[in-house]
What does this fold into?
Amino acid sequence: MSEVLIEGVSKRFGRTEVIHGIDLRIKEGELTVLLGPSGCGKSTLLRMIAGLEDISEGVIRIGGEEVNDLEPVERGCAMVFQNYALYPHQTVRRNMAFPLKMARLPRAEIARRVAATAKLLQLEELLDRLPRDLSGGQRQRVAMGRAMIREPKIFLFDEPLSNLDAELRVRMRLEISRLQRELLATMVFVTHDQVEAMTLAHRIVIMRAGLIEQVGTPLEVYRRPANRFVAGFIGSPAMNFIDVREVRADATGSQLTLGDGSTLVAGALPAETASVGIRPEHIRIGLAERASLSFAAGQHRSIGAEHLGDRSYRYLSLPFGELTMLAPEEQVIDETEPLAISFDPARLHCFAHDGRRLERAAA
Ligand SMILES: Nc1ncnc2c1ncn2[C@@H]1O[C@H](COP(=O)(O)OP(=O)(O)O)[C@@H](O)[C@H]1O
Ligand SMILES: [Mg+2]
It folds into this structure.
């Protein structure tokens, strides 16, 4: 049993509290990603699970057992860090065997586990090499092997891919996913990279300033962000936010008055909507969709474009603020011509003054 239960956990460094009483259930056999901006407390939380930091308040249970007072080695967790420290003068085989030697396992058992782990990580050919004769990705795999070889109940990863180049990062991501599935392991993976979180996680825990903002599957947090912070953090380029001055219900739905006084008709939205969000990929140029905004020549200005090849992100300055949209590469936006943009009102996210998500009544 390797479910991790975090109950009312706080962390103080001296007088500064950096984790403020959080509750979280990390399910057995799942890959859970702790995601949030730098300094929000991800590493601290992970280190408290591992036993590398004291718990100032609250309880952490692993497999039902309270572990607050257990030493790291007694908790059955293995930690993989960003900097994979291997012993430079030892072969891959000896690097991997090291934790088992420390634990005084019989030699035959050590050999069996090294062979099994090397097979799983495709390191068999490399067992007699020294770390300096390995690529970055191979070293990372050896470091993982050294963590896995103890057959931990739980794998803890603290930004293990941040130092790798883009291509290798994608490969290692696939590798970690594969391992997780093969071992049916419980994994907790810390990152500040939302793409990494979206692609790896069964469940994402989004943190900010020592608190949890939302827990959900990647699609849940993408489709139904609990608040503006999550909405802006998940998705790249970020969701557009438009301030709303007033929502007035009429026969056809709601009429929104935007910050600059312009109006938009968009389904039935909650009266307390203070801002709406729309993702760049959900905006169309032209009037194809139900909700639309029109701008005269001179009212819209291009402030940049990012070309992806087949599509490009267009950054526009509009009367109510800036807007990012994803458009076909061949789409021309001419500042000397009028411009219309439109979207399906169902794609709008509504937020209250305090940033909370507001649910719309079913259509
Ligand atoms: N040993 C420490 N002593 C004092 N403050 C710390 C210590 N470790 C972390 N912090 C502070 O705790 C907060 C959370 O840090 P951390 O968990 O490393 O964030 P993250 O991993 O999300 O970037 C930060 O404000 C950081 O400065
Ligand atoms: Mg960190």
In short: Residues 47 and 53 are 6 Å apart (CA to CA).
